[in-house]
Amino acid sequence: MSIILDHVSHTYEEGTAMEFHALKDINLVIPDGQFIGLIGHTGSGKSTLIQHLNGLLKPTGGHVYYNGADIHDADYNRKELRSRVGLVFQYPEHQLFEMDVFTDVCFGPKNLGLDKKEVELRAYQALKQVGLEDEYFYQSPFDLSGGQKRRVAIAGVLAMKPDVLILDEPTKGRDEILDQVAAFRKETGMTVILVSHSMEDVAKYVDRIIVMNKGEVLMDQIPKEVFKRYKELEEVGLAAPQVTYIMHALKDKGMPVSADATTIEEARLEILHALHR
Ligand code: ADP
Ligand code: MG
User: Fold this and answer.
1) Contact, 96 vs 140, CB < 8 A?
2) Which terminus of the chain has fewer Cβ atoms in its 10 Å neighbourhood, N or C?
3) 20, 24, 26: which to mutate for ligand 1, most atoms within 8 A of CB?
């Protein structure tokens, strides 16, 4: 099963002086279980794109299909879709509202109509998955640090046991939760889409990178292939991970290394092999 975007366009304030073409003819297939990095400069359309995947925004042109069905058909159940395709917003404050953390995380599964025991079990498991310690469970989510709020927001989505988890980039600070995300993705096999303006942050995790530029898909490849195009990335205000630059510099200086290592660990092995040669 999959998510398909078929010639999707989105124009904000269509027909006014403020008209803005945020997405232009996007065609993508997102199969089950992939780990995807959605990268682009600020304003490239990333947040607009992901809000189309769970039906929060409606394309002004084209269609979005979830498991074969057009999500904007008159009789399509978009409420159900939102529990299958979980979206964690850029600002966790926008999705926290209950008096304490545990009640907040219970909200989603409760809304699915599950019984109390199942709701509480799911909330507990989700809070464990994001690595939030028990001492915070009965505090107000608004008293937590930015990073902890984000964990609670992610737990709230996970408690619905979605098939797809989409994490929009945190506004402040680095996302320290990505190791946990990688771990529970491996456990559950869910599709994960990480939105970021930094290659560095996602390179280590993802199987596929979609690069957005000015509302269009500029690249859609495995990380190694994307990083080979680092000069084009720079032209759109992005950069490959630092290790890419180091490997290219070593190669240019005559060291027999392959320049397409994408993580520090790969680079380390590549350099060690070169030194042994
Ligand atoms: P990104 O997430 O990559 O930073 P966005 O999808 O948030 O990009 O925004 C893409 C463009 O659409 C930006 O130029 C932004 O100003 C514009 N935009 C976003 N939301 C709205 C809106 N509600 N009304 C008008 N323009 C918007
Ligand atoms: Mg954004």
Assistant:
1) no
2) C
3) 20
Q: Which helix (H) or strand (E) holds 228?
A: helix 223-228
22 CB less than 6 Å from ligand 1? Answer: yes
CA distance 122 to 142: 22
Confidence of residue 91 (pLDDT cuts 50, 70, 90): confident
Q: What percent of the chain has pLDDT over 90?
A: 79
213 φ, ψ to 5°? -145, 125
Residues, CB-to-ion distance under 5 Å, ligand 2 = 46-47
Region of 109 please: left (phi>0), alpha (psi -120 to 50) or beta: alpha
Instruction: Kindly identify the ligand whose nearest atom is closest to the C-alpha of 44.
Output: 1
Q: Which residue's C-alpha comes closest to atom 27 of ligand 1?
A: 12
In this model, does residue 228 exceed pLDDT 70? yes
- Give the Å distance between the CA of 259 and the centre of ligand 2: 31
Q: What is the pTM of this model?
A: 0.93
Classify 161 in phi/psi space as left (phi over 0), alpha (psi -120 to 50) or beta: left
Backbone angles phi, psi at 203, to 5 degrees: -50, -40
Q: Which ligand is nearest to the CA of 21?
A: 1
- Separation between Cα atoms, residue 236 and residue 44, nearest integer Å: 10
Tokens at residue 92, please?
């966790």
The full DSSP string for 121-150 is: HHHHHHHHHTT--GGGTTS-GGGS-HHHHH
Residue of 9, 11, 12 to test ligand 1 pocket, by largest number of atoms within 8 Å of CB: 12
165 in Cβ contact with 83 (< 8 Å): no
**Nearest Cα residue to atom 12 of ligand 1:** 22
Q: How far apart are CA 215 and CA 110, in angstroms?
A: 37
- Under a CB-based contact definition with an 8 Å cutoff, are residues 195 and 209 in contact? no
